[in-house]
Design a protein that fits this description.
Blueprint: E1 2-3, H1 6-26, E2 33-39, H2 43-59, E3 62-68, H3 74-86, E4 92-95, H4 105-111, H5 123-130, H6 139-150, E5 159-163, H7 170-178, E6 187-191, H8 198-202, E7 207-210, E8 228-231, E9 235-238, E10 246-249, H9 254-260, E11 263-264, H10 271-291
Parallel strand pairs: 1-11, 2-3, 2-4, 5-6, 5-7, 7-8, 8-11
Antiparallel strand pairs: 9-10
Helix pairs in contact: 1-10, 2-10, 6-7, 6-10
Bound molecules: guanine (GUN).
Length: 293
């Protein structure tokens, strides 16, 4: 059984990016610049955004963090987006989700200039991704594809069951896995909350990608021997014994499922760190594209 080490692969990718940045510096080229907008005080979002900022510093990117109170109006937030679109130094930026309930997420994401949309959430970029055109692929699905490739997991002709149809993970990864490409070409089933007889599907799956946010939902009796499991779930589960008062749990009961799996991602240290590495990769790409305009 192989434990797919996202932490290690993400470090390799960050090292590759750092070398590219150093080469750019020697040529006198611009330092890539990523900005992040964080609205409100959600603990998990703060942790993610802080990790993104720290990662920027490590690879030699410039970073800007814009924090706004959870009471910010939609119009004020749209003005922040306008400013980011106009700022020539900023190559790419993200608006950390979720946003407070009074803000229309779709309106905000639609306002992001697609050339700076390093999250790949704008419909223009999502559409290009679906049509196999060069674009920004959202960091989490991009990270999963990168893990499959770097671990040379056989994907072609396999039955891949994706659980969860979110716009950020489930839907895009189901599209990417079915595309006519190396380390793709799978036959994909997209399962979700209304799927009946889920176990019948997961038991026939060669590859399972779970993006549910339901801790330890996937058990050993739901999978077949030799399955490849990619666990995107990451939920804080309260644990008074833990230093922070909580532990992180994936969607997969790792202990039991790993005994049957051919390869599996752990939580933490699987898909999570890849998301940050791929965001940096998209930012470098945005910076390079801006130069060639
Ligand atoms: N919230 C959870 N995942 C993500 C992500 O990849 N990007 C943004 N902007 N928000 C998120």
């Amino acid at each position: 059984m192989i434990i797919i080490d996202g932490k290690k692969i993400s470090q390799i990718i960050k090292e590759e990016i750092k070398e590219d940045v150093e080469k750019r510096n020697l040529k006198g080229l611009k330092q890539p610049h990523l900005a992040a907008v964080l609205v409100g005080d959600d603990g998990a979002s703060q942790t993610y955004v802080n990790s993104k900022v720290i990662a920027c510093q490590k690879v030699g990117f410039k970073s800007t963090l814009i924090t706004k109170d959870k009471t910010i109006s939609q119009n004020e937030l749209l003005q922040v987006i306008d400013q980011l679109n106009e700022d020539k130094d900023i190559d790419g930026y993200i608006v950390q989700l979720p946003l407070p309930k009074h803000i229309d997420e779709e309106k905000v994401l639609m306002k992001v200039n697609p050339d700076k949309d390093v999250d790949g959430f704008h419909p223009y970029n999502f559409g290009k991704m679906a049509l196999e055109m060069p674009t920004f692929i959202s960091a989490t699905p991009y990270g999963i594809m990168e893990l499959l490739e770097r671990y040379q997991i056989e994907v072609a002709s396999k039955h891949c069951v994706v659980i969860g149809r979110s716009h950020i993970v489930g839907r895009p990864i189901s599209i990417l896995m079915s595309q006519k490409k190396k380390y793709a070409n799978a036959t994909v089933t997209l399962a979700h909350s209304r799927t009946k007889y889920l176990e019948e599907l997961t038991k026939t799956a060669d590859i399972i990608i779970t993006a549910l946010g339901n801790p330890e939902f996937l058990k050993a009796d739901m999978v077949k021997e030799g399955v490849v499991v990619i666990d995107v779930g990451i939920t804080r589960v309260s644990d008074p014994k833990a230093k922070r008062g909580y532990v992180l749990r994936g969607d997969v009961e790792f202990e039991s499922v790993s005994k049957k799996a051919k390869a599996i991602t752990p939580v933490p240290g699987g898909v999570g760190p890849m998301t940050i590495a791929m965001l940096l990769k998209n930012t470098l790409l945005a910076c390079q594209r801006n130069e060639h305009k």
